[in-house]
Amino acid sequence: MTENEISREIVDACFQIHTRYGPGLFESVYEELLSYELRKRNLGVKRQEGVKLVHEDIILDKAFRVDLIIENKVIIEIKSVEELKDMHYKQLFTYLKLTNLKLGLLVNFNVALIKTGIHRIVNKL
């Protein structure tokens, strides 16, 4: 599957979850539900994957954790906040750069309509 095909599955799963439960749950709950829904679609899902960062002579084996990595191609950063801030977009973009992945979805479930809470971030490599 391409990144775009994977992202369509992710968006559909987010829509199903949000339609059923709406806003107001913790990020960890949405992460669990989304992980479950994507696995039901036979997609490879990694949760809270630690990512290595190498800086000169320093190696940080788990410099940060990514909420979800789908099919080793798409990162999902899940939020349940009143308003996304610029730093949330920058955080996901940095994750994409450091993992050499092209596509990330920043998903804020704390919105009235989920389509307004899903944002694509592209790493042009």
Which percent bin holds the helix content?
25-40%
Task: Estimate nothing, just give the exact number of structural domains.
Answer: 1
**Fraction of residues in β-strands:** 25-35%
Tally of DSSP helical segments:
3
At CATH's second level, what is the architecture? Answer: 3-Layer(aba) Sandwich
Low-confidence parts, pLDDT < 50 over ≥5 residues?
Answer: none
Helical/strand content category: alpha+beta
What is the spatial order of strands in the main beta sheet?
1-2-3-4-5
Note the main sheet: 5 strands, mixed
**Can you tell me the overall shape?**
globular
What would the CATH topology be? Trna Endonuclease, Chain: A, domain 1
CATH class: Alpha Beta
Q: What is the H-and-E element order?
A: HHEEEHEE
**What is the terminal separation in angstroms?**
19 Å
Total strands: the figure is: 5
Calculate Rg over CA atoms: 14 Å
Mean pLDDT rating: 96
Structure characterization notes:
There is one protein chain. This protein has helices spanning 3-21, 27-40, 86-99; strands at residues 45-55, 58-70, 74-79, 103-108, 118-122. It has three helices and five strands. It is globular. It is α+β, with helices and mostly antiparallel strands. The longest helix has 19 residues, at 3-21. This is GxxExxY protein.
